[in-house]
Structure formats: structure tokens, C-alpha cells
């Protein structure tokens, strides 16, 4: 996806502050953090929104969550707790149309 910002980050064409990478996912710091620690976890495969997620991508989708857990543990947030969030579509607040999970930590969130 040549016009996708996160695909450009994956290709190294746009710089990012990477905190985790494996064969399937990349995680990097959000440029406008909404919490003391805020990273975006993206699949290396371009999937625009949750609406485009196929049942064949179930393992990949699960990896987004296990990656959130791994990063939270590595960064020392697992015990205090943290928030994961995914926005779907314009109405859901999505502005970058490459599916991603937000991991927010380092403060107490309200319900
Ligand atoms: P969305 O609203 O689509 O769920 O979240 C997109 C996120 O991407 C926002 O939190 C925004 O701050 C972040 N973002 C937008 N442009 C860039 C960028 O160029 N680099 C990084 N690291 N994050 C970005
Ligand atoms: Zn993309």
C-alpha cells in the first residue's frame, strides 16, 4: 500500500521509534502520545480496518494482543495495568487506515 503511512513506516521510508518487532508485527511509539507510554502495534500485512479482518487472519489478530502483553511486561506496566484500544473507521476515531492496536500505560485510566 504505497499511500499508507504505516506501510511506509514498515518499509523504513518514514522514521519511527520501534519498541518491538518480529516476523509478523511491528510496535512503535505514537507520535502524539495520549499517555506517558503509548505505542501502536501493527500487523506487517496491510489490513485497513477491523472490518477487513478475515477469519484467516485470526492468528495475526491474536498476535497484536500477545505483543501488547509482551511489551507491557518488558516495560514494567503489567502489574499496574494498562489499556489496549482499537478504533475502527472514521466514526470509531480511526485516522490511519492500517489496522493497529493502541497500548497505553503509565497512568491510571478511568472506566
Ligand atoms: P487511530 O486514530 O487511527 O486509531 O490512531 C492513529 C495514531 O497514529 C494516532 O494516535 C496518531 O497520533 C498516530 N500517528 C499519526 N501519524 C503518525 C506518525 O507519523 N508516526 C507515529 N509514530 N504515529 C503517528
Ligand atoms: Zn498499510
From TrEMBL:
Signal peptide: none
Source organism superkingdom: Bacteria
Stretches assigned to coiled coil: none
Domain HIT: 5-111
GO molecular function, one term: catalytic activity
Catalytic residues in the record: 100
InterPro entries with a match to the protein in the record: Histidine_triad_CS, Histidine_triad_HIT, HIT-like, HIT-like_sf
Motif (Histidine triad motif): 98-102
Pfam family membership, one: HIT
Protein name per the record: Histidine triad nucleotide-binding protein
Amino acid at each position: 500500500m504505497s499511500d499508507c503511512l504505516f506501510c511506509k513506516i514498515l518499509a523504513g521510508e518514514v522514521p519511527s521509534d520501534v519498541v518491538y518487532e518480529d516476523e509478523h508485527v511491528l510496535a512503535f511509539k505514537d507520535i502524539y502520545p495520549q499517555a506517558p507510554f503509548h505505542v501502536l502495534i501493527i500487523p506487517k500485512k496491510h489490513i485497513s480496518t477491523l472490518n477487513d479482518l478475515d477469519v484467516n487472519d485470526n492468528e495475526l489478530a491474536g498476535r497484536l494482543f500477545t505483543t501488547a502483553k509482551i511489551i507491557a511486561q518488558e516495560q514494567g506496566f503489567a502489574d499496574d495495568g494498562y489499556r489496549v484500544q482499537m478504533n475502527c473507521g472514521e466514526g470509531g476515531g480511526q485516522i490511519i487506515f492500517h489496522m493497529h492496536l493502541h497500548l497505553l500505560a503509565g497512568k491510571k485510566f478511568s472506566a
